[in-house]
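Notes on consecutive records. When two proteins share a document, each keeps its own sequence and its own token line. Never mix them. Below: protein one.
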Amino acid sequence: MDNQNIINHLGENRADYENSVVPPIYQSSIFCFDSVDDLRQNLKRELEVPFYTRGVNPTVTTLRRKIAALEKTEDALIFGSGSGAIAAAVMNSIQAGDHVVCVQKPYSWTGKLLGNYLSKYKVEVSFIDGKSIDNFENAIQPNTKLFYLETPNSVTFELQDLRAVAELAKKKGIRTICDNSYSSPIYQNPSEYGIDIVCHSASKYIGGHSDVVAGILCASSEVVNSIFANEFMTIGSIISPNDAWLLLRGLRTLPMRIKQSHETTVKVIDWLSSHPKVEKINYPFLESFPQLELAKKQMRGCGGLFSMEINANSIEEIETFCNSLNHFLIACSWGGYESLLFPTCALFDSANYNQTALSWKLIRFYIGFEDHQIIIDDFSQAFNKI
């Protein structure tokens, strides 16, 4: 089934809800049964039958089916945040005293989970340069149970070779998790290369309107059932039916939105590449990107997220440049309709992020739906201010 058919029709039993074209929001916390035995039998398959919305809700189930099909996995779970999905996937994969190999510069809260929080359970973590498969192999210890990937990462966009890492992991009996938020299911499917669990911050491209926070975990039915029965039901990091409906709405236009953002970004980066005040651009489909060949092998497109270092003499000049841009909002995240920027220099005096090793000249940009010439003109006038 092609992606648009999945997005438009899969899991939508319209005859069950008065032939409504758009599925309803099942805003109910509980669901009743015809008899005690009906209740008893359905409790044996709690992942399939609505019983209590902390577990299964029909609106969420429709979303699960679509996301799993788009990611080419057997099933999926929807969480209240990307951090919740990632934490559940990690905790299901390891026990106290295990060892994890994680790529350098993961999403900040993934780094906190692995590098800080899990240390209380004597979990050891090796952060490696994931560009080389040799680094994964060299990091393996007798108690290594998990490889954690993020390809590309969402700041400097280093990639990992998904197939090579998955093959090594399977040979050694190690589970693999990949954060696929940057590419979305439209532009990359890690499960096709053998990755066990695929995670997303659905607040990004999948939501697409900057109005919902959510996370997604995609895997085999066996893994999803295990996580559902343990981490998901225990911790309760669930999504509301209303937010699940917002993600369904976002999915309708996902292929068109990410395609437009990609096409505009290519034009903007082409102009930026020759500007004298641009020192470096990080973007997986840039001709000078060191891993371009791998990016085009694993990814079908790139979307609108990139970063660059500009030729500035001080943090004050970086701030002047950012503050002078008229068509960018200063905010985190990406994947919506609006163009965004996030400067690394803002992290240098922050309680949660001040340990960053990133350059103070680095600024991450997301290109939304503005015309490329409007964005170029905006960059041009802002460069003239420094």
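Protein two starts on the next line and is unrelated to protein one.
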Amino acid sequence: MKLFCSQDDLENALNTVNKAISSNNTLPVLNNILIKAEGKKLYFSATNLEIAISCSFEADVRSEGAITIPAKLITSYVSLLTDEKVELSLGDGMSLVIKSSSSTTKIKGISSDEFPLIPKVDAEHSFAIITGDFDVAIAETVFSASTNISRPVLSGVYFAVDGGVLKMVATDSYRLAEKKLTLDKKVEGSFSCIVPSRTISELGKITNKSSSKEVAVSLSKNQVLFKVGDVELVSRLIEGKFPEYERIIPKEAKTKVEVSLEDLSLVLKRVSLFARENNNSIRLTATNDGKMLVSTDETKVGEEKAEVLIKMDGENNKISLNSQYLLDVLTYLTDEKIVLEMSDKLSPAVIKPVKREDYVYIIMPLKV
């Protein structure tokens, strides 16, 4: 193998596939990135056997070949090069030689024959999503997925496609986020799957930086392939049935409170400093005098009561919520104003953006 490529392209490719490397791999080759020169392109792959990320770019390939190189080492090294052009070649004893104008470096690797095969996805269903829309949907849902692996179906993001609409849903049973997306092209029938939340988080880092206009999604029975420009991410799917969540989303509310997202965030951050001592429990009390009181009971470190201006429709109401769950959603929404809906102290609180109907977030109330 011998080739010339740009340092910038090389660094970007390494950073992209690095997202599939896990810190607790048992097989040494899984800590490595597969680098393969073929035709006029340089290909990169990394996997932790649950997700695999591949990408490629055009290079001046003089001779073909492949090797796997420790991911952390080569990524750190290439990021410190200042040359625009670098030369890669295979050295003696399974090593990669990297030459720049001022240095020659040899990094020892493992044979590409030991690298696991990246699975091919035989698509039963496929659809495309506008990259920017998908990027927003990931940010607004994935944080709600459970980090507890005792219920695997809750540790993923539920994808449900019906005609021209995709619903993305995540829940940990204490809060739930649902985002609706209009697909580029309508698809026949309806189908669904559960994608691990880690897959979706890593995909979000790729879509966030991508200049590609759309994400192509291909589904098989137990795997999914996301293609964003020259980047491909393959992941296993989570088996099981996602909860029938729509039944717990309140259809009506006794009280609707319109509030500035920025104002509420600031008040919540202050009150939550004291609520930490009380399992993040805060009380929201909305009254028709145009104000909502946000408070916490007195704790070891003190207490806080703060008011925020609101526009209210309906009756006076109050509810106790986990402040962190409320702050989480306010962190990821970019809207100026939100609506907070309440019915009674045992019904979930509902948060929606004022100017769009494609998103809903619910938080289960705390018992006081």
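For the record: Residues 125-246 form a domain with the DNA Polymerase III; Chain A, domain 2 fold (CATH 3.10.150.10).
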